[in-house]
Amino acid sequence: MFKGQNLKLTLFGGSHGECVGGVMDGLPHGEAVDFDEIAAFMARRATGGALTTARKEPDAVHVDSGIRNGFTEGFPLALTIANTDTRRGDYNKLADKPRPGHADYTAYMKYGGFADMSGGGHFSARLTAPLCAFGAITKQILSRRGINVNATLVSVGEVSGDETALFAEIGRVKQLGDSVGGVISCEISGLNVGYGGPLWDGVEGRLAYAVFAVPGVKGIEFGSGFSGAKRLGSENNDPFCIENGAVKTTKNDSGGILGGITSGESIVFRSAMKPTPSIAKPQQTISLSAKENATLEIVGRHDPCIALRAVPVIEAVAAIATLDIIL
Amino acid sequence: MFKGQNLKLTLFGGSHGECVGGVMDGLPHGEAVDFDEIAAFMARRATGGALTTARKEPDAVHVDSGIRNGFTEGFPLALTIANTDTRRGDYNKLADKPRPGHADYTAYMKYGGFADMSGGGHFSARLTAPLCAFGAITKQILSRRGINVNATLVSVGEVSGDETALFAEIGRVKQLGDSVGGVISCEISGLNVGYGGPLWDGVEGRLAYAVFAVPGVKGIEFGSGFSGAKRLGSENNDPFCIENGAVKTTKNDSGGILGGITSGESIVFRSAMKPTPSIAKPQQTISLSAKENATLEIVGRHDPCIALRAVPVIEAVAAIATLDIIL
Amino acid sequence: MFKGQNLKLTLFGGSHGECVGGVMDGLPHGEAVDFDEIAAFMARRATGGALTTARKEPDAVHVDSGIRNGFTEGFPLALTIANTDTRRGDYNKLADKPRPGHADYTAYMKYGGFADMSGGGHFSARLTAPLCAFGAITKQILSRRGINVNATLVSVGEVSGDETALFAEIGRVKQLGDSVGGVISCEISGLNVGYGGPLWDGVEGRLAYAVFAVPGVKGIEFGSGFSGAKRLGSENNDPFCIENGAVKTTKNDSGGILGGITSGESIVFRSAMKPTPSIAKPQQTISLSAKENATLEIVGRHDPCIALRAVPVIEAVAAIATLDIIL
Amino acid sequence: MFKGQNLKLTLFGGSHGECVGGVMDGLPHGEAVDFDEIAAFMARRATGGALTTARKEPDAVHVDSGIRNGFTEGFPLALTIANTDTRRGDYNKLADKPRPGHADYTAYMKYGGFADMSGGGHFSARLTAPLCAFGAITKQILSRRGINVNATLVSVGEVSGDETALFAEIGRVKQLGDSVGGVISCEISGLNVGYGGPLWDGVEGRLAYAVFAVPGVKGIEFGSGFSGAKRLGSENNDPFCIENGAVKTTKNDSGGILGGITSGESIVFRSAMKPTPSIAKPQQTISLSAKENATLEIVGRHDPCIALRAVPVIEAVAAIATLDIIL
């Protein structure tokens, strides 16, 4: 459950079962919701570019309650998305052999077999569908306040550059039967100075808490981040200046946050996405029943680069966390 | 306020005023507390190596309540630390000229002058003194459960290597009247498999939320983190194996966390620390009163590398977050 | 949203719309769930005795996720209940004339018309259907731990006595075109000594917070409660004694709670339920549009005594709060 | 810890130890604080009328941080109050014989001897001193917004009437070596319509949660409360009317809350206070060490009626909860 100061979001379901969904508590009333914009955002998630898994889901968002005549009521907003393509059989044989890099083993140890892990279960990327639906709604609410959230894929493996270069690298890796990681950059523009606070009220910590929920995220940095850790203070500090009567900084290596508080510059953060754990190549694992080493070959199609499909998901969690911060 | 699931910690005070302190709610009762160990940990923070600011504080920890006869009572643990060296005068002249990289400007905009920002006020690194006191206590509680938290400085600026090399680099930067960033690595060993959960119950998000409260942290990565984002899945996945009858992984690029759940391997994360914002070199800033550009020269001694002094602080927040996770 | 320390429950929907439902976060995994018992409990709520409103709902509980093969998975448990009988028309004419004793006016002022208040909307007793479904599930979990929650109607208006007497009084009031209040007593047996704590960790406050969510509750008292406020200490104190080697009290005027902590005796509390606000008699109200006094006549059938139907609902919230306390 | 939506308050210390105190997080910045008013409120608590325990405490409030130049900073407000009169010896002999009606037994079972229960420890009414200090501060903040909180003692035992009658009854009971309960009424005036919400956002539940933290509270009712449970709907409903162009109700049996939302009328609630458990008369209890029945005689002076002294404490918690609701 996302435990924001103002917004709470519980996602439910998994890749198995008839639907996934979620309930968000704390949305203000009277906010217009455009369902075409939700659909467009869901389409961004579903396709994720031409190179992702062939699995196609329409992902129609069904609002159970909380929106009336196109406006939020101010009550919990519940929505569901049908699972139209649940091929449980594909995964059953994995049950005894935990996939390296996945939650199979840790979930088995924690939930003792009560959790249905076929297709990843509640750990599956399928949960990012309702997450994006809520992201689309919060993005609309933010947008009317002049705040925009935009994420982009900036590197794939060792390659950074334009979309063509990144797609080419993903295609190359796919041919190898392998997968590859990537980095997503996200900018939140239009925030006034003064949100957040010191220590655990800081904007960095609240955004990081939100972002690490996205499957595959293993790192986050704000502004110059890890690069800044290599610099001198005279390089890294952002000089203040007066620009058209307003206080600005001449650059934004702080990522829009000073002392945990928004500075009025855009928030900029980058997320490290690990390579998709599911790969076609044989991998070393164990048999849980036999308690011995084993080899695993995963059949079926998989995204060679989850970073590609995670772009709108990062946007969604950033939007949700940002709305929580400004409410 | 640190809002863990089980532990809550509120720190109070600042570099001004007579004391700093904090109250922790949620500690179990009957936990032995060794005050010599607290003092030793406070000494690690106070000295921070030979090259930090000359300001010396004894930092005696005074427990107001919650410990009796050397054991926790199970009630809120309150402690204070006197401010023995408050030279407010040094900072007053800065009030009109916000220091680049500091919270001066954002705090002024947020709190409208009601916050005493002399010496950094509630944003000051002074607050890390009570934070370390609570860290020392939680480290003891963890240690008796076989869990150990250890942080080390692994790089300063562009230099990584042994302590001598790092200190040399700090000394070099200090001569320039400048400051430099660094990276701190932290390992949490001894955790069983099964703590945490999917989405926002994930261990990464809960640790990140805790760690970003430390002044100067601008990034965090778990396991291979941003390096892993450059790799292939076949490189980054940690193969499972049976070792002496137990399930292990042959390496630990996941940083001890799979699907948000501890794997039984050590948790490993790295924090990017920005360079100390206060430097001797003149910097461009503004005059808030005149609303015009201005030049700022900060006099007085400052840590050339906050990363050095932050090592025990990272250890402290990691220990607090870990105890929250296992309770 | 119910914000327990361990359990969170969000209910959604209302008397309008296609369904009501809820999501509970924090349930342990591996708990058996008997759907026949859920159905039996839902039947208790739906009928509420012969004298309640004629509206009949089957209230079949549909679990969307969180239960697999009859056991909780340890993930959020989502369920929905269809609204099969939504006669919005009955209520539309009320929109301009707020019903005395209802949330019509306050909701209108708070939500500014965005909330659909037909049939009570999100304020409707309809929400108690999913509440009872979660109550039925938590009651099963408690029962396996030897803890039982039982509520009974102990008085209707000025009449207390057996069920026959209470039903007779409800029938009499119904003939008058009026409604009547009542008192529900609830006992939670089987709790060990030691749950809860001082101040805001106290069991009374946590139960009271849960119980006041039930529509119509206007008071709660534990043990001797308001009667105890009339007594001498020598009468009200519960003497301790040794009984079969165990510490007991010779009576239970504390309601099973001393210093906010369970004593090992049963928790006993009583809830004051106000009379159903909707009555057949003409009532004085206002026209919101005309801003003038007006008379309101409510047509349609209504429960003459919500206390009767609230009995299983009180049981449900008490069970949910109790499970939160012992987890 | 008081876990409001906006305010968090942790109290620490007990009747033993050098001080009691607390930390409040979430107060807005720039609120004027008048220390004379705090002192006046503390005096109300300390004296509690002529008939309370002879123990006299000056209860000077020492603010450690969070207030500067007479205004809140917007950071955690920490304060302490010295314990000047700690006669631990009086209570030590009680340790083996739990006092009926006290937390001695339940705390012993929960904390296993680690909690210092001399004088009530963390369960002692001594904690109400910092609670009142925070109440005095929040009352000032509310007062500047036109909101006033006033509590009064309305009955002692079977006696209701003016102060003289109530004091006479307390005096009579004191002569008997006994104690007596009472009822406190509290009015919160000046609140606009629209605070709160349905279900667990309701104002009743949030106030009840706050109020049950006061030692001795065993019941709470809003408006007509338990009396309303005896009435017909036609009697209990509050008719709406237009008065000078504004919407009002002709009476206030709802206690200012409809559907969990403030109606614009004053909130009115009543708290049932149990008789002081400590009485001079011999009582039946047990010996924990011998595991056998025993007789207890408590020496020393005690308040014959905690309800008298609890009046400002109820005012304090009501003020804190109200500020939390309106922020």
N- to C-terminal distance of chain A: 19 Å
Number of helices of chain A: 9
Main β-sheet description of chain A: 5 strands, antiparallel
The number of domains of chain A is 1
Mean of residue pLDDT values of chain A = 93
Oligomer: homotetramer
Tell me the Rg of chain A in angstroms.
Answer: 21 Å
State the order of secondary-structure elements of chain A, H for helix, E for strand. Answer: EEEHEEEEHHHEEHEHEHHEEEEEEEH
The neighbouring-strand order within the major sheet of chain A is: 1-2-3-7-4
What would you give as the CATH superfamily of chain A? Answer: Chorismate synthase AroC
Total number of strands of chain A: 18
What class would the helix/strand composition of chain A place it in?
alpha+beta
CATH domain class of chain A: Alpha Beta
Measured as a percent range, the helix fraction of chain A is 25-40%
Question: Approximately what portion of the residues of chain A adopt beta-strand conformation?
Answer: 25-35%
Q: Largest interface here, residues on each chain?
A: A-B, 100 and 101 residues
**CATH level-two architecture of chain A:** 4-Layer Sandwich
Give unreliable regions of chain A as ranges. Answer: none
- Here the CATH topology of chain A equals Chorismate synthase, AroC fold
Global shape of chain A = globular
